[in-house]
Amino acid sequence: MLKVVSLLKRAEGLSKEEFAKWAVEDHLEFAKKLPGLRRYTVNVAVAEDSPYDAVNELWFDDEEARAAAFASEDGKAAAGDAGAHTSSRVHVLTTAHELF
């Protein structure tokens, strides 16, 4: 299982509350349409001085499924929506190891 960890910094002009609503409610509608997405979590930062405002986790069966999802029309729409609401996005491809 491949997990994409996305570190998101909100766009200039968005309050923490506006960004949190977008991340948890509005952007979810884009994520629901991604083909091959197995699991999706959104973690909203609590601290005002956090370097990122949210950390999202997207699970796919493998790299091919991830690449196909992001290359799809729904993937491109999700990326466009994220780009409009963030000033910075960092994606880290990982393999999760749940230890307990």
UniProtKB/TrEMBL annotation:
<dbReference type="Pfam" id="PF07110">
    <property type="entry name" value="EthD"/>
</dbReference>
<dbReference type="InterPro" id="IPR009799">
    <property type="entry name" value="EthD_dom"/>
</dbReference>
<feature type="domain" description="EthD">
    <location>
        <begin position="12"/>
        <end position="80"/>
    </location>
</feature>
<dbReference type="InterPro" id="IPR011008">
    <property type="entry name" value="Dimeric_a/b-barrel"/>
</dbReference>
<protein>
    <submittedName>
        <fullName>EthD family reductase</fullName>
    </submittedName>
</protein>
